[in-house]
Amino acid sequence: MTHLLYGLYIINKNNNIVINHRKGELNIVTTKKYMKDYPRPQFVRDNWTNLNGEWNFGFDDDNAGEAAGWHRQFGGDLIINVPFTYETKASGIGEEAHHSNVWYNRSFDVPADEAGKRIVLNFQAVDYDAKVWVNGEYVGCHRGGYVAFSFDITPYITFGAANELTVKVEDSLDATQPRGKQRWVQDNFECFYVQTTGIWQSVWLEAVHPAHVDQVKMTPDFDANAIRFEYQVKGYSASNRLRLETIISLKGQPVKQVGLTIDRPWMQLEVDLVHEANGPWKQTHWAPAHPNLYDVEFVLYENDAVVDHVYSYFGMRKISIEQGKVLLNNTPIYQRLILDQGYWPDSHLTPPSEEAILEDIEKTLEMGYNGVRKHMKVEDARYLYWCDVKGLLVWSEMAATFEFNDNAVQTFTEEWMGVVRQQYNHPSIITWVPFNESWGVANIRKNKRQQQFTEAIYHLTKAYDPNRPVITNDGWEHTVSDILTLHDYAETKEQFMRSYADKDAVVNNSISFNNWKYAFADGYSYKGQPIMMSEFGGIAFKSDKGWGYGNQVATEEGFLERFRRIHEAIKETDYFVGYCYTQITDVQQEVNGLLTEDRKPKVPLELIRQINLS
């Protein structure tokens, strides 16, 4: 039997059995259709080609490549390892200086027997402006560094022969484009790191029938024990007879199979999940203690012949807010989150491997956290897949802009809504965080335009997803927000207890904190929202290599005492319903992680777990 080694796990050739060597247990933890390294694990097809690996590459600092015809005769003289950006060691280049224009080129084959199908070229993420040519012909462009995009390249390719793919990426140091923790000056500073330029997630091909399932939005109704599917199908016409079968199963047992005649490109269907395989209700819903996932297959027929087969999954779970509490499946949940910026030393924002993704999730769980706040980064879909599978809660946060004008409003809005649509189906995501600490809206306390912008983003997000909480301006100066979140890097328990002893004073802007920041922007007030300490800690050991929050500590004992005491303060403040500790790993010059950049624990993880769970 062939196996794939995953650190603590071995996944067998059927991709569905995992052995946990640490506990000696045999667990079914993957979904029915799991393929290692598949870039989009919640919408899986068998027929795909991975285009990661060696590409030709070139810097175009004079922006002369298009005029010189690099899309027809490539002019670059370097080799890069996609999907790692040129700034990283993993790319094979490791050049950290900013270059505004970079080019990629490689050849690819499409088998002759694929003729008659549509060939779709997929990019999971390219930062920032991408232009694409195939065999010298312009295919299209895309703007935005964090959202996946695709092109139907069928008209431009030759089946049964080599084809040339060329990509130009334009990036800038413009602070009005969503950049998150990417620096916009020459050198790193404070908590801002080396920029990310170009292709930084997977590139891949799919061969699909002209009629195929394009998207499916899945919305669980926990209280009704039902699931609503909203289908978008490409290739529909009045002349072809299309039928879509939706096949649902749970732990290998059939649940429901329903058919739908396709008579327009967009349709919806609600399916109840009452069935003999249900058993006790707690055995069928999704929660950290039992992250059950329903498998679902979408099988599209044209004139009774199968023309498309897509595998997916969903979790039955509900996020709600009542009486100042966050509820998961109608039960209050205390959130123990850790801030996770998703950086690695040799590959920066790009996960070096799926094994590395699993290692981060495992260590998070091992330390007693039940969730992560993905900070200033739109994470790889494979990370979200494993959070779905392993029951790790996720706050999904947008990369910030750092100036406010009309361009920033437009670019941020378009990309953020793309993120929400792209990540909507993941049950692990329980909260949306479009803004953080007034970044990009620096004058929000009094500026009406900036306040209205955050309100607009809140309501746009709710229009697409009314079921998850939205935090508008995490940390302070909230406008409309479903949760009131606070950031405070006080070093002692006594400081925390003094600052937060009087809840009314905090929520009514009677006292300030964090350099004269208040809980709400002017004109907004507390409406009974749950309250969380969503950034605190950031303790660093003494080092001349970087910084942490407050005074650095000299010993493991000193670290654990401070860590324990500030956690006690938050837990003893009875109106807090959770917290988020900064942070899981060191990141470049920021050395306040519980783990080093290369994921070595600084203190025994079991001791962190004991404090979290006490």
Q: Which CATH class of the largest domain applies here?
A: Alpha Beta
Strand order of the largest sheet: 32-31-30-29-35-34-33
In total, the number of domains comes to 4
**Poorly predicted regions:** 1-28
Question: What name goes with the CATH superfamily of the largest domain?
Answer: Glycosidases
Mean pLDDT: 93
Q: Briefly note the CATH topology name of the largest domain.
A: TIM Barrel
The total count of helices amounts to 9
Please tell me the CATH architecture of the largest domain by its name: Alpha-Beta Barrel
Oligomer: single chain
InterPro entries: Beta-gal/glucu_dom_sf, Galactose-bd-like_sf, GH, GH2_Domain-Containing, Glyco_hydro_2_cat, Glyco_hydro_2_N, Ig-like_fold, Ig-like_GH2
Family: Belongs to the glycosyl hydrolase 2 family.
Keywords: Glycosidase, Hydrolase
Pfam families: Glyco_hydro_2, Glyco_hydro_2_C, Glyco_hydro_2_N
Note down, in words, how this protein is organized:
The protein is of the alpha+beta class and 614 residues long. It folds into four domains: 1-30, no CATH class; 48-208, Jelly Rolls (Sandwich), CATH 2.60.120; 224-317, Immunoglobulins (Immunoglobulin-like, Sandwich); 319-613, TIM Barrel. Helix content is 16%, strand content 32%. It contains nine helices and 35 strands. The strands form nine sheets. The chain has a seven-stranded parallel sheet with strand order 32-31-30-29-35-34-33, with helices on one face. Helix 2 (354-366) packs across helix 3 and helix 8 (556-572) packs parallel to helix 9. The longest helix is centred in the C-terminal third of the chain and has 18 residues, at 406-423. Pfam families: Glyco_hydro_2, Glyco_hydro_2_C, Glyco_hydro_2_N. Belongs to the glycosyl hydrolase 2 family. Residues 211-317 form the Glycoside hydrolase family 2 immunoglobulin-like beta-sandwich domain. Residues 321-610 form the Glycoside hydrolase family 2 catalytic domain.
